[in-house]
Amino acid sequence: MPISGRAADAVTVIGLGPMGQQIVRTYLAAGFAVTVWNRTPGKADGLGAHRAETVADAVAAAELILLSLTHYDAMDEVLGSVDLTGKVVVNLSSDSPQRTRQGAAFVRARGGEFLAGGVMAQPHELAGPAAFIFYSGRPAVFEEQRELLRPLAATEYLGADDGAAQVFYQAVLALFLPLLLGYEQALAIVDRSGFEMARFVPYAQRSLGSVGELYAAWAGTAEDGGPADPAYLRMMAAGARHVVATGTAVGVDTVLAESVSSYWERAVDASESTLRVFRG
After folding, report:
1. Which residues of the chain form beta strands (DSSP E)?
2. What is the pLDDT of residues 123-156, one digit of tens each?
3. pTM for the structure as a whole
4. Exposed site from 46, 59, 64, 262, fewest CB < 10 Å?
């Protein structure tokens, strides 16, 4: 339901790429007054938000300032000459945890408060049931802004360490990006082997059906130092080699598969070296 009747129901969004534009639409749909600024002013056309002429005007329009930029260096460039006293900057851009901590200090040195965010959703998924956003920063600041951030997605607060949101966000990307590339290569293998990709899709979906349980079990294994059974490691290494051979045979790029294979081969070597030590 739209939130209305409070002066606090105003936000500024800086950065109007696909995610920034969807953030604007989401807040407008929730009844907020939205001010925007972007290096290319035309990206604000048709959004229905108020377009500020300068960054300073955009910052002055609301207490809550949301950034959707390519990286944290862009925040420094955009806000470097702006007084942020009394403002809360929520940076939803991607960057390393350490760079995020530096960004937090940058904002606070200019009088503002800071929260880091990691958006776990595609733009069209914002405000949907599966969307959530990691946040980190000073607890009191997050609690003050929680309800104003809620229209975007479910909030997952990770604590006072400014870099925590990016630790978890980048960890998810470390999982997702190879998975996506692997899926593209799987489709290419099927296609170049003379089969329809659509025929493979339900089997791919079925193979991931129990991945939630696998993640939980594998985390326990990782805490114990990783899989220690040499036979298991040799089986995984052999499977990885077979993926490389299959992709090579049909002309699919195997750089990712070769990297995966290399990890398993090294795990086998390390395990066998350990066994040799124990056996004397």
Report:
1. 10-14, 33-37, 50-51, 64-67, 88-91, 113-120, 132-137, 154-157
2. 999 999 999 999 999 999 999 999 999 999 999 9
3. 0.84
4. 46
